Amino acid sequence: MDAPAANPVTTAASDRASDILDKVKSVFALNGFEGTSMQDLAQATQMSVGNFYRYFPSKAAIITALVKRDLEEIEALFDAVRSAEDPGAMFMTLLRHDIETLPFEKAALWSEVQAASYRCPEITALMRTMDETVRSNVVVALVRIHGDDSPEAREIFETRAQLLMALVHGFAQRKYCACETADPSKTAAFAELVLSTLHDTIFASPSKPAK
Predict the structure, then answer these.
(1) Is residue 211 part of a domain?
(2) Model-level pTM greater than 0.70?
(3) Domain with 15 in it: what CATH number?
(4) Which of 126, 156, 161, 177 has its CA 20 to 30 A from that of 143?
């Protein structure tokens, strides 16, 4: 049986919403969550405030949509790791791309989202969902890389997943704090150190150190 055809009206609205999200990211990154008004956001999309509200009734709704969209992208990336012939190499390729090409705007945006999560329960819940999604996917990826699904290995992988996430998040936070004035060579050296630590954490044998 053929899949039902997509509703062109719904598809157009979804595409427009996605386009709006792309345009307002830089406004949040520049002005911060609290410093951005709905009028600022509408202006960035060249829409009237009234028309803008038809798509997103609040700033929290925009952040929610951004987080949900990122969750879908994260799931797609981990699907690529799980299905790869060499999942370890694929994982490192994706991490290297994320670290080396991380734009300042994205680092700034997610720092603002993190800050907003402390004030908005809905965003807090979404960020916890994202955190759990990433953590569980990292654990599954490590199981696949090492071919070890024992309870002992999973316990180790859970801890490593926390470290991997802290390294990636920390790199983004440091890039945001350093702003665009940071020395590119120093940023590149820091990125290589982070990637080296990520590599060692991913590929180290899942065995507990002797007491």
Answers:
(1) no
(2) yes
(3) 1.10.10.60
(4) 126
